[in-house]
Amino acid sequence: MLAALAIRDVVLIDRLDLAFAPALSVLTGETGAGKSILLDALGLALGARADSGLVRHGREQASVTAEFDPPPGHAVDAILAEADLEPRDGPLILRRVVTADGRSRAYVNDQPTSVALLRRLGDALVEIQGQFDQRGLMDPATHRETLDAFAGLGTQAGTVRTAWGAWRDAVSRHAEARAALEKARADEDWLRHAVDELDRLAPSEGEEQRLSDTRAVLANAEAVLSAMNAAADALAGEDAGADSAVAQAQRALDRVADRAGGRLAAAAAAHDRAAAEIQEAVAELQSAADDIEADSGRLVEIDDRLHALRDLARKHGIEPDDLPALHRALVDRLASLDAEGGGLSALAEAERRSRAAYLAAAEALSAGRGKAAGRLDKAIAVELPPLKLEKARFETAVERLDEARWGPDGLDAVGFRVATNPGTPPGALNRIASGGELSRFLLALKVVLAESSTVPTLVFDEVDSGVGGAVAAAVGDRLARLAGRLQVLVVTHSPQVAAQGVHHWHVEKRVAGEAVTTSVAALDSAARREEIARMLSGAAVTAEARAAADSLLAQSSGSRAGGDRAVGAGP
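Request: output the structure for the sequence above.
Response:
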């Protein structure tokens, strides 16, 4: 509920601190005293549009702080968590500051935030009827949720939202897979041509480097062979080859080996190894020369192969060494086309099943709404005659939407419609009813919907406009019944309504020199009697007016002591 309201420098209000209590609070005062300023100030704290005209003349800024005490687990806790704000530990404090140039700042528990978040929190905490035309029940967007709450369809509505999300996910997956397959099909001709080129070329890992090395040798074959021949002659030439020198040295040692007492054995072994190494070197040189001579005719072929590898790599925008990996990837893509076609069928079936699940859940929700709409209409019809709306008709329209407009809330559009005169078709609530009728329609709705309301505080601005006598008494009675479940604040000019209040505030405009201020005072029983008498008789309060005020207060007190009728129970 709304626990406190602190207002600073808003229009005629200099400094005002109000503490509120549960049940029904009434605000009364002369026309022009500033009652509407209080609601404007509260609206600021709830995220209403800021206006520099709200700043008191001569001041730099205006501020409004509203303190609430919502129960644990209230919707505001989820909103705070979603906005990544610290969870509340105690009251929830909404504050709004508006500067003289029209700029504004918003705070939640002293944490800076957006006005949009302030408005979301305000909508969950307070519903103001009659002051803000597009909020609460005046907003057609709330009617579907209101009907669901009245009917206790919250669980079914949650099932529909979950089914809608699953269907949308299935549609998305199917569409993405279909688009990918269509793109692959569109590229299939190119893909097959690219794979064919790579099949024919058959590049291997590291092939370019090997070919480049071979080409470098072949391009210098003459010089390489000449050097190799010179090396072979030096090792095994007929006249002065290294092998002849080693053999000659070995023979010289052999002639004296038996006289050296074994001292030449190691040298002889080394000569044997040297002779073997020379023979192996000569053999390797001969083999290499044979390879070069054999490959000498392949230079053109190697050049062509290198050009083919490099051209194809440039065509695909990669390095020649990456051609084998590309080849494997393109072959895999080509092979996957048929497999993807089978996967697409499975995704299409999943989409069909999820659509059917959503439709089944939504149809059940629609059926529940249809039944609840009839019950709501009957309950509202009971409330209208005492409010001098006996000729009016209330209708809850539940209409099936085109499939293109289906959504997480189901298949239906829900709207509250009224007809104020017999024979006229019903129209939108906020377009058909006049100001006074509209306030009473909204009161009837709130009485019936009180059991399912999640908003703990209701504010009515002159809900009794244009009525008096028995009708005003009926309005007061219904406000009192509402206050049995919710905190209700009402701005009223009706003594019958004012008498029903548990708490009574008097709004007064005071003039001191050139300064004009609005003040608000809580009335005790004596002052309250005098105020209701004033409302009954006007400026001159008579004994008869005081007696009438006593009668109204006694009736209201007796009604509360005897126990009010259940909310929505009828006249």
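DSSP finds 18 helices and 15 strands in the chain.
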